[in-house]
Amino acid sequence: MWQFITKRFGLMVLTTLCLSFIVFFLTNLQPNLVKLAKTEAGIRMTDDQVLSWLGDRGYNQPLLLRYGEWLGVVPGYVHTDEEGRTRGRCISPHVKDTPTYCGLLQGTLGNSTIFNVSVGKALATRLGLTGILMFWVMIVMIPMALIIGIFAGMREGSKTDRALSTVAIGFTATPEYISGVILSVIFASRLVFDERFLLPSAQSAMENMSFSNFALPVMTMVLYGMGYIARMTRASMAEVMTAQYIRTARLKGVSFPNIVFKHALRNALIAPFTVIMLQFPWLLTGVVIVETLFNYKGFGWLLVMAADGNDVELLLSCSLVAVLVVLVTQLISDIGYVFLNPRIRVSS
């Protein structure tokens, strides 16, 4: 097992490096850098002024060299202009002793050009807000999805199965931006109620969370993710209910509830466990629409702001976080699947 984990960890590091380089390359294309210069220094800059601005900040260096600076394996650039002013990646007015290396390995992710704070501080604040949203979504979504899937798969082909499966497919087929608008019209509109039952904006939930200002974004994400888990649970439950040991238990006269809860349920939940773990990467990226729709300023909102403002350092860090979440949840899913299913063995 430990050899398997070590190999997977090495593969995770290699995958992270490859994907981060691709994102670094795309975010540092020349048109993006020109846009960054004009956004920061003035839209009416000439081409020569743009080149001078980029050169003063180290953007004209070779791509691999700059990527090494961002990783922290290459010394940060230092540039002194004609007036004797020194500028560098690692030079900061708030730090007396300038370090030679200041990249990812040193815990330095750069500064955000939009928020004028360190990228690490901006990420920590927004990830905390998104973590709260993801927590409540999972708390509500997983039990509801499992209940729907179990009841649908207990009696495959019955009216209950067809009805619950239709509901699950309908939820999954409805994107968040549609279900969010529908829920807002129903529960947050004065056209339906004399007074708003729920608030259409979740901005106040960042300071004082309540049911009225936080229910709509949670409900929107729950409805979309619940259908997929329910369908996978239903398929797994239906397969287990046709197994030979279930038939044997029926022939022995074991009651149907005991067959479901004592024999079928544990084996039926093995496959949905993997699906549930894969919901974490979806939640982290799926909040882009929901947080923007309900004005909840979490990780998804931060990613939209970084892309809209061409904040290169912030975009890189957001992409890195998304990659790490995907890789870590996949590793946990593989390890958990081995423990849940004794028949599975990892190969060294």
Written description of the protein model:
This protein is mostly helical and 348 residues long. The chain folds into two domains: 7-106, no CATH class; 119-340, MetI-like (MetI-like fold, Orthogonal Bundle), CATH 1.10.3720. The protein is built from 14 helices and two strands. The protein has a two-stranded antiparallel ribbon. β1 and β2 form a beta hairpin. α5 packs antiparallel against α6 and α6 packs across α8. It is elongated and about 90 Å long.
Rg over CA atoms, rounded to whole Å, is 26 Å
Number of strands: 2
Strand coverage percent: under 5%
Which class best fits the helix and strand makeup? mainly alpha
> Mean of residue pLDDT?
83
Number of helices: 14
**What is the CA–CA distance across the termini?**
8 Å
Helix content: 55-70%
What would CATH call the class of the largest domain? Answer: Mainly Alpha
Number of domains: 2
Low-pLDDT parts are none
Question: Would you list the SSEs in sequence order as H and E?
Answer: HHHHEEHHHHHHHHHH
> Strand order of the main beta sheet, please?
1-2
Question: Mind telling me which CATH architecture of the largest domain this is?
Answer: Orthogonal Bundle
